[in-house]
Design goal:
Largest sheet of chain A: 6 strands, mixed
Number of helices of chain B: 5
Order of helices and strands of chain A: EEEHEEHHHEHEHEEHHEHHEEHEE
Radius of gyration of chain B: 12 Å
Largest sheet of chain B: 5 strands, mixed
Helix content of chain A: 25-40%
Mean pLDDT of chain A: 90
Largest interface: A-B, 18 and 16 residues
Oligomer: heterodimer
CATH topology of the largest domain in chain A: Rossmann fold
Helix content of chain B: 25-40%
Number of domains of chain A: 2
Strand order of the largest sheet of chain B: 1-2-3-4-5
Radius of gyration of chain A: 25 Å
CATH architecture of the largest domain in chain A: 3-Layer(aba) Sandwich
CATH superfamily of chain B: STAS domain
Number of strands of chain B: 5
Distance between the termini of chain A: 44 Å
Strand order of the largest sheet of chain A: 5-6-7-3-8-9
Chain lengths: ~350, ~100
Amino acid sequence: MITVTNLSKTFLDPDNCRVDTLNGVTFHLSKGEVVGVIGPSGAGKSILLRCMAGLEHPTGEEIKVTPGMRIGMVFQHLNLFSHLTVLENVTLAPIKLLGMGRQEAEELAMSMLRRVGMSEHARRMPSTLSGGQQQRAAIARTLAMKPDVLLMDEPTSSLDPTMVDEVQGVVSSLAQEGMTMVIVTHEMRFANAVCNRIFFMHEGCVLEEGAPEQIFENPRMPQTRAFVQRIRCLEFNISSGDFDFYDMRSQIKQFCIRCSIAEKMGEVTHVVDEMFALISDFRNPIHIEVNHSDLKQETTVTVLQYGAEVSALDNPDADELAVMIIRGMSKSSKTEHTPEGVKTIFEI
Amino acid sequence: MTTTIKEQNGELVAFFEGSLDTAASLQTEKDIQPLLTADKNILLNCEKLEYISSSGLRIFLQILKAAKPRGLHVFVTGMNKDILKVFSLTGFNNLLEFRD
């Protein structure tokens, strides 16, 4: 359907220096394939999609598209027309660009809105919808142009975490219906579940491509391995009771938002706060780590009490209320004895 | 974290605002002293309370323990989801009287 050969794109930066954002990308996309594009920011993922959609002109070589084929694109930011209803948003292009009659366009629009579970909101204005509903309406609008290939640029990244699932559900069902798609995403679990081919992009190139099992479980390139197994970490060293607890809480909040785990913010904060209360004596320093693995979607809190032999949680005199809160807010806990002290690891 | 106590409709109402965490509990313990010698029913208004830790719960318990022998009621209102979770994990939902 689409053959991309040695695609390059160069920009001039403000000092007129050449910046390569795409550097020799080559691949062939066949009908029914669902490709997930992952990689660090600045790797060229969005530019690749924009070149494929014809929104950017490549600097070198070419993109060959089967004649007559339609490419649709769903953007990261919700961009419905705010003065039009959902239905009017979806019928606009079929009427203006495909020359469809209003009734035909509305029938088409309603069937697309049903496909994304939005038919009951057809008469509403975009501002009255949640972010997830707006993104589903935007997908319906793109589908109304009957694309042969759907390109999606981080379709869930501007959404509240609670709305990610509903949009991912729609994308999964489109994949099951056989829609050919290229999806740029940072949600690796989602890419693993929905895509049948993964591109790992690095510095403007597709550094490694393969089936999800290969890329996520057995990556060949060290850069791919480092990226997919990446564990994000937030650390604190506490050596006195005067430690800035407010700053720590605000950093935990920012960290959870960055990792798209805002829903775990309460649990992480309670566990850290109550461990802090249980230890209370900081003559021996403590080290706190919050870790999150994107791929496994696992979040842990590790508290290292230097020089201690018993975890504050297992101390027979430990405050019962604090222990109850910690136990309730974490899925599990275990202790490890290290030469430095005792480590208590909580799964959140 | 701020605590304001007002008399309203024959009750003493304590308005909690902010995070009642380990670090804030010392000050809050001082702020609620008038409630410990109250001769009226008490309402703990948590509409603007974002967070409560075990040390915050202990302050609520202290208020309850002072009120009970005098035959006074302690009501709570306006808790968010996180605070309700802490209440249910610790059994506090059975100790306090909820008011909508």
